[in-house]
Amino acid sequence: HNAAGVRMLEQMGFTRAVLARELSLAEIGAIRQQSTIELEHFVHGALCFSVSGQCLFSSAVSGMSGNRGRCAQPCRRSYRNREQPGYHFSTSDFSALSLLSQLLKAGVVSLKIEGRMKSAEYVARVVAAYRLVLDAPESGRKQAMQEAEEQLALSFGRKSTKGFLTGSIPSAIADSATQGTLGKHLGQVTSLRGGMIGFTTSDRLHVGDRIRVQPQNDQAGTGFTVRELWLEQKKQKVVKGGDFVRVRIPDKGGFFQVGDTIFKVGGKAAFTLSPESCRATLDQVAVPEKSPAQKEILAQARAQAQASLLPGAAPPAPAVQSLTVRGREPQDMRILDEPGVAELELMLTPETLAGLKKVDLHRADWQGRIIWGIPPMLFGPEWDEYRRAVGMLAGQGFRRFRVNNLGHLPLFAGLSGLTLLGGFRCYTLNSQAALAWQELDLAELTVDLEDDRKNLQELFRRSEHLPPLAITVYSPLVVMLSRIPVRGVRPGSVLRAEGGEGYRVFQHHDLTEVLAEQDFSLLGHLAELKGLGCTRIIVDLSQCGAMSARGKQVLAALVADQPLLETTSFNYRRGLA
Description:
Helix content: 10-25%
Mean pLDDT: 89
CATH class of the largest domain: Alpha Beta
Structural class: alpha/beta
CATH superfamily of the largest domain: Aldolase class I
Low-confidence stretches: none
Shape: globular
């Protein structure tokens, strides 16, 4: 998402970088001017509300991690704001068709279409549309654009947006009044009888079209291909908009109710035979057995790969756990006088830098025990501002900093005597990731906040060969970071899901933060974590303040290793998928 991160990838030997969807054309052009690596950018498909790779929403709701490609799409659900339901996190689909020439001029050499969960028909239409414009001569570009837009209109996507490419945030990028559902709205179920649903269709419908019936709650809809279409007691191949039609429900269809919404999500298929008519006995194909030589080669490759992995071992004998407290402001430095607190971490922001002037920095023991955390997202000129701030802090004698992605590492180029630590957003779910961060000179790593007990056990079994691993045992649970504002919602307000879960929305430095109402806590599990070999723990009090009543309550629970009410252990016991 910035030039520093792209340059780091280039230094590490990568030949192409995929840029974040949150960038403008100007920001892409600036990255191109500062690097020679190939640049790839998304041009069409679903647009996440969260900044790419920074979403814990799905993981918090279901254990299905969006950062691992398993998103359960909670952002598409309805959330109540002061009893008023709305789709506050559901974004329009991204479409950069009209900006292709500008993207190419900005230095993008590869265009990516999001289509992993889409039908072959959708992929074919979208690829053909973009190919049509890319291949058109300058004289025929206008005609090609018109034909391509007609193709995309048949792909049954959501309402489209150019996203951030134009440099401003479009008001329609996330509209709380619009359900984030794919397809063309056809109507609502008004009758259920004889194994068929009845409704008045708002558009032409053909046997072979695909429809999806969406329930009135937040549950997933049911999609199927129209095999039987009835109009006035007669089977039809096609009906027109305004007709009352009945559609046969498949034998293994979902549970439908009157009031459910119907969407057309796919056009007429290439053929309309029934599933039974499509079944045929395939000719048997002879498959040659693998040769002994091939088996031997594969066995050698597996043995070499397994040998390269770190050996598992019993965790080292538990030692005294070192405690780092993450505070809210420089005045929280007083927590360093409390017994058992080894270090204080402060997020490096304009506010904390300003507050630093009010604190006595002549206490040498304090300066050596302060860690400065770098905010996860630094866009455009922000990076240069933080480069200057880091240099100033280093000049004042601060030596410990926590980074949260590859783009942070160049902030410290040319500065000697510093110790760099990795935050949990330097994702470390296995020993190989830990070794990769170690090669980049990180002296300590924080395990992923969404990790589970079983995987942590495996990770600590190999910790003898890794940098020291810290575990966050209490923290606000930031489920999304976004450049998209949540319109119509006052900062600090709670958006509540149908199941009762609440999420607070805040705005900080042009970034939207969405926090789960319940904080993350592993308090009550400290003895177990110590048994794994964990000797470094982090308590994040940046939301409430280290010296606040809530902060003192958390630290008291830490000392007693007692669980706190109204908190969540996230995936620790449930498991991460």
